[in-house]
Amino acid sequence: MISAEKIPNNVGLSSNKRLQRALEHWQPKYIQWWKDMGPQGFQDYHQVYVRTAVSVDPSGWAHFEYVKLPEYRWGIFLADPTHDRRIGFGDFLGQPVWQEVPGEFRNQLRRLIVTQGDTEPASVEQQRWLGQRCPSMYDLRNLFQVNVEEGRHLWAMVYLLHSYFGRDGRDEAEELLARQSGNRDKPRILDAFNEPIENWLDFFMFTMFTDRDGKSQLLSLSESSLDPLARTTRFMLTEEAHHMFVGETGISRIIERTCQLLEGAGYSEDVRKLGGIELPMIQKFINLWFSLSLDLHGNEISTNAATYFGNGLKGRAQEDKWTDHQVKEAIYELDVPADGRLERKAIPMRTAMNEVLRDWYVGDCEAGVQRWNKIFERHGMSDRLRLPDRKFNRGIGMFSSLHFAPDGRPLSNEDWESRKHEWLPSAADREYLLSIMATPVYEPGKFANYIAPPTRGVNRQAINFEYVRTEG
Ligand code: BYC
């Protein structure tokens, strides 16, 4: 039975019979999906200390308790409405925002919501085996926190589909549980969400870089003229921040530990011999997940993006920081491959909206990498990590048929094939990572050898708090 107690919400669920009926049909399928495709081995006998959103005010969205994962209360929340909110960009600038979906934009909005929704369960599927290889109980709990919140983000998109898209929306909601990450016949929509995440270096890089694409896409959707979409995504951003924290601090702790191991051995030892993760390996995983996440922003030149902007469906991150919100005349300059060279070209900015968002994203990633580099400074080491050039290893967009080194130098096919494992993880790298993660660390307060403990625990609990309890 669907109830406000089981599904905390601020969308008037108890008085909305139509939505209740739709969710009553969908929810059992969701739970079945969670059991089949969610965290493997942690469904029945474990209680996890997680945060549950029970309202959108500061005291309500971080309510901590022990929960059995399938009993998590996935809620539906919209950020508080803005009084007299007006459309902030595009051709309808200044008009009141929409509380219903305009017929002429129905397909475009559905596509955006389905694409966003598809990524959420995909990430849970990608991460489902990680609990078996976790570096500590603290990290195990953070993994599950991220997983349940991605589940809630799926609920957020399903709420929109059920409430505003009628029968089509119901069908799409079912399909969101039918596609599967990495499945040959029914893959997830966007490429990065079909990549395996089999070790914790992948996981931390994914939450650093791919969740940050989540942030940039959610920022741009939170500008939408469709007010329920804007309010839903605005609230999702509060949770997304924690996911990026998990990624950024996870990598910080690996770097910290590597520096400690190097120091302890007088900088002469091979870090692998000490059971740590060497810096070139960390760089390779940056190269991989940054480039995959750049792809998630779509083609550099995109009429889809121009249409979304013109129609007011998807804006820019922090649209109010721009002065021109219509962008009818503005141009954008970018390097376009032509006859084996790059040529500077000016294109209408509306068609470059994916690239504009990518610029914002690259800046946000760059700041994160600089924070990592501070760790080397503190240790008095000259090593530095860096983002690869944005043309490197691209699978989507105008550079996808060409090859470039991480510094942006063009490469022939042969050079690329012979050198790519200098820059991207090889099978041997992955094998090594699995070997040091083969034995999970489940003892409170203990950490795997390759990662330093965090500086503090969750919700002011101690680092050695029992974040995951096994039922007796
Ligand atoms: N993989 O004109 P274009 C998150 C396709 S992450 C495969 O550039 P558009 C999260 C495209 O579908 C954020 N295909 O497309 C993070 C199109 O195909 P068709 C997720 C791709 O629409 C961690 C064609 O190429 N949210 O939340 O302007 C954990 C032409 O491309 C890809 C969103 O993505 C790709 N990477 O841009 C959990 C927001 N890229 O129609 C969650 C909603 C492009 O020709 N989505 N294609 O067959 C969008 O805004 C847009 O769909 C995209 C693509 C920016 C993704």
Quick description:
The chain is mainly alpha-helical.
Description of the molecule:
The chain has about 475 residues and is mainly alpha-helical. Helices cover about 45% and strands about 5% of the residues. It has 11 helices and 7 strands. It has helices at about 15-35, 105-125, 135-165, 165-180, 200-220, 225-265, 280-295, 305-310, 355-380, 415-425, 425-435, and strands at about 45-50, 65, 330-340, 340-350, 405, 410, 470. Strands 2-1-7 form a 3-stranded antiparallel β-sheet. A two-stranded antiparallel sheet has the order 3-4. α2 runs parallel beside α4. The longest helix has about 40 residues, at about 225-265. The model has no long low-confidence stretch (mean pLDDT about 95). Benzoyl coenzyme A binds next to α2, α5 and α8.
Q: Termini distance?
A: 29 Å
Number of strands: 7
Discrete helix count = 11
Strand order of the largest sheet: 2-1-7
Question: What is the 3D shape?
Answer: globular
Question: What percent of residues adopt helix (DSSP H or I)?
Answer: 40-55%
Radius of gyration: 23 Å
Q: Give the overall pLDDT as a whole number.
A: 95
Secondary-structure element pattern, one letter each: HEEHHHHHHHEEHEEHHE
Sheet-strand content, in percent, reads 5-15%
Which spans have pLDDT < 50 for at least 5 consecutive residues?
none
Category by helix and strand content: mainly alpha
Largest sheet: 3 strands, antiparallel
What hetero molecules are bound to the protein chains? benzoyl coenzyme A
